[in-house]
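Record type: monomer structure entry
Structure origin: computed from sequence
Chain ID: A
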Amino acid sequence: MSGAGTPDFFYREAQRLGYVARSAFKLLQIQKQHKLITPGSSVLDLGCAPGAWLQVACQSLGPLKNGGTVVGIDLKVCSSPALCISEQKVKVPPLYCDARVHAVCADVMKLPKNQVRALSPRHKGFSVVLSDMCPLVSGITTRDAALSAELGMQALDLAVGRAAATHLDEDIKTDRLLNDSVRAADDNGILQPGGHLVIKLLESEDNKEFSRICKPLFRKASWLRPKATRSSSREIYLICQGLRS
C-alpha cells in the first residue's frame, strides 16, 4: 500500500511512458471500459493541470487526420486570482499532445457557460466533459467532501445547465446553482446531446444526490474507482453516458 506522494507502480509507469502524472491511468481505464472519447470528439477537461488527462484525451482521438479537439481549463496555473483566459499560461505536455490540444487559464467557478461554449468547435459545445477538479483538502472529511461536491455540482451545471436544476431539491437549487445570476441566466449546458460527462468526487452521502440527478438525464450513470487511485484516497468517479436530448 502506498501513501500520498509515495512512488508506486502507476507513478513509475507514468515516468516510464512519459505521462506527466499517474492520473493518466485513471482516464485510460475509464476509456478502456466506456470508450467515451472517439475520433472526432470535442473534449473539455476541467482541472487539467498538470496535463495527464490532456495527453490521454488526445491519444484517444487517434491520428491527427481523424480530427477532434481537446480544451483544458485550470486555475492553478494563473498568476493572478482574477479571471483570465490565456493560452500562454497553461503548459500543454508535448508528448502525446498535438495541435488539437489547447489549454486556458480560468476559474471555472466564475466562467459563464457562453464563454466556455465559445472554446468549442463552431461554438456548438463539447461531446465529452471531464472534471478531474479537486479542492485543496484540509483533512477534515466532511469539509473536504462538501467542497468536492460543490466542484462536482458546478461541473454538472456547466455541462447540462437548467436540466440539472430541475432534479435538485429546492434548498440545493438555491445554494448551489441558482445563486449566481450570470450562470443562471444561461440555461443551456455546454454538453451536446448524446454526450458524456465524468465527474470526480470524494466519497460521501452527497454522492447519492448526484446519482439521483444524473440518472434521468443520461442513458447510463455508473460509479468507478480506478485501479490507479491511491489506497488512501476517497476519490470516486461518476461516469454519465449519453445525455438525453
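Annotation 1: Residues 14 and 233 are 19 Å apart (CA to CA).
Annotation 2: Confidence is low (pLDDT under 50) at residues 77-88, 170-185.
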